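I am still learning, so can you show me any protein sequence you like together with the matching structure tokens, please?
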Amino acid sequence: MAYRNGTYVAFHANGTNYPLNSDIRYYNLIKAWSEKAGDDFCIVNSHDKTAAVRDSSSKETLRRSLRERLNSSKNMVLIIGETTNQDDDWVPFEIEYAVDTCKIPIIVTYVDIKTPIYDCAPLLPKLPDALRSRIQNKTASAIHIPFNKKVLQDSLRFTFNNKPNGYGEGIYSANAYRTFGL
């Protein structure tokens, strides 16, 4: 069994590696927060735990690498942008493996939301079917947060041994959001 201390970040790449045309820009921002000297935001990036795989590699090679990274992860951050629910290959695969096999919680962060989330039900249509169905059948453990550094930092405490409440519909309280300055 792998040492599970990493955070796996999933996002819809929109079939491009150009940052302004996909949600990779938010992944890069999370990495920048973590790499900034003197900042207390820190993630152990599961993507750094295995050798890089080219996008031109075979699907099975890519799947093997993704499984290895997920096996080393304590949680998954799922970046939800405007097209994430249209992804029909990699993001659904990552969600299915994370929930069904690795049993890790999903930290669902919405890039277009900057205010507290008190009810995730109106946001469920933004999710890929792979996660929405697992929330509905209560097999996924998830917390729904705005894309905010302080909120994300706190949510990283949720792991396979410390899952958020709410059976996939987890949210923070108003008091918690006040402590985050929201």
